[in-house]
Specification:
Radius of gyration: 22 Å
CATH architecture of the largest domain: 3-Layer(aba) Sandwich
Distance between the termini: 41 Å
Number of strands: 8
CATH topology of the largest domain: D-Maltodextrin-Binding Protein, domain 2
Structural class: alpha+beta
Shape: globular
Number of helices: 17
CATH superfamily of the largest domain: Periplasmic binding protein-like II
Number of domains: 2
Length: 422
């Protein structure tokens, strides 16, 4: 099935390329993207048309995972490539060293002249260990703790009970469960995802150090596993995964009171997850002052692009065009990466769904505090291994130290790297 999807994706891109040569009189830029990032791209088309009258922009959209699989295959083959490739933050690590992508720091792009215009952590995510700029960001998801203010009030709790410390967070979850029957969080894994990113500095990696060695047996991971285990034992997590039907129903039925995720979750709650809960949600910083982001979107230019100059103009519009950045934020809750766009008056407007809270200013503060972490091509592998081992702790009572030791062994075997000593 996967190979079939790859062939279908490459066929789509090949057809797009053939179609582009069929009209000798027109110039066409082909962009490969995925939902809903393609919607932001469409918002930019009128502005791009004013810059380049008569130039057509052909958008090829595939499902998120299929898109990244197709781009991996196309870059490896050096064929059937578009002029501009969308990349999600979760996949950036594996694309940063691709020889098939242009180094945008070099002429004629000279992207480094724009570094000061973009949020630090987002810029860093597009730069590999050799200093090559392989992609520019167009949006980010600064972390936030969304919570049900009405359910907390019924429990005699306040926002500070959730964010002052992890001990307070766990205690608040017990009180909430006793008073309302609601779980504080959907899954204990969510707490681990925050805790393993706490305290990191610019240039550090989540799962690997600068020499590419596994860090999962360190104190940071041990504390994260212990926190998740304590949440499960306290009975404050519903044990449901994000983006499942049970997860969405938990919010609709007042069964899950909080969720830590990117700022864009507010828009999802409003538009399709739980619109009937309007006015009951609030946004808060992450517990213990943690700074983290959920995802982000990037675009890269393939070495084999036939329209590099036009692709670069479109990329600059998407990443550095203030009006475009604000328009995408207004329409799609895509938080801007451009610092100038983060100063727009829109950020100070109250959000009715969040009870009139001016939460975008809070998200801007988070976006400016997130460290510029180093990505590794094997981050996704390590994340999967760590997640699986934590499941063993949560569901089968596996010891934390044993689970982390096994995680490190598995990671070392899968990526063939020497681990850091415990």
């Amino acid at each position: 099935m996967r190979s079939l999807r790859r062939r279908e994706a490459l066929t789509l891109l090949s057809c797009a390329a053939v179609a582009g040569t069929a009209k000798a009189a027109s110039v066409r830029v082909t962009v490969a993207s995925y939902p809903d990032l393609d919607r932001a791209l469409k918002l930019a088309l009128p502005s791009f048309a004013r810059l380049h009258p008569g130039v057509e922009v052909n958008i090829v959209t595939l499902a998120h995972k299929d898109h990244h699989t197709a781009m991996t295959t196309a870059l490896a083959a050096g064929a059937a490539l578009p002029d501009l490739i969308a990349l999600d933050m979760d996949f950036m690590g594996k694309f940063l060293d691709s020889a098939g992508l242009e180094d945008l720091s070099r002429a004629p792009f000279n992207a480094r002249s724009h570094e000061s215009e973009i949020a630090r952590f987002a810029w860093r995510a597009g730069v590999n260990a050799r200093g090559e700029v392989k992609a520019l960001p167009v949006d980010v998801g600064p972390g936030a703790l969304f919570y049900r203010e009405d359910l907390l009030a019924r429990s005699g709790l306040h926002e500070n009970d959730l964010i002052s410390s992890w001990a307070s967070f766990l205690a608040a979850g017990r009180r909430l469960r006793a008073a309302t029957g609601a779980y504080l969080v959907a899954h204990a894994q969510d707490l681990k995802d925050i805790r393993i990113r706490a305290g990191l500095a610019d240039g550090e990696g989540v799962f690997f150090d600068a020499q590419g060695r596994s860090l999962v047996r360190g104190e940071r991971f041990r504390q994260a596993f212990e926190l998740a285990r304590q949440a499960r034992e306290a009975g404050i997590d519903a044990g449901v995964r994000a983006w499942t039907n049970e997860w969405a129903e938990g919010f609709r039925r007042d069964a899950i009171a909080a969720q830590m995720m990117g700022s864009w979750l507010g828009g999802h709650l409003k538009h399709w997850i739980a619109p009937a809960t309007a006015g009951r949600w609030r946004s808060a910083p992450l517990p213990e002052g943690a700074a983290a982001a959920w995802g982000g979107s990037f675009y890269a230019i393939p070495v084999h692009s036939r329209q590099k100059a036009l692709a670069w103009d479109l990329l600059r519009l998407l990443s550095l065009g203030r009006d475009q950045q604000v328009a995408a934020f207004r329409a799609l809750d895509a938080f801007p990466v451009q610092l100038a766009a983060q100063e727009d008056a829109f950020l100070a407007e109250p959000i009715p769904f969040l009870g009139g809270q001016r939460a975008r200013l809070q998200w801007r503060d988070m976006a400016r505090r997130v460290p510029a972490l180093a990505l590794d091509r094997y981050d996704a592998v390590a994340d999967e291994v760590v997640r699986n081992e934590l499941d063993q702790v949560l569901m089968r009572r596996k010891g934390v130290d044993t689970a982390l030791a096994d995680a490190q062994t598995t990671i070392e075997r899968r990526v063939r790297r020497r681990p850091v000593a415990a």
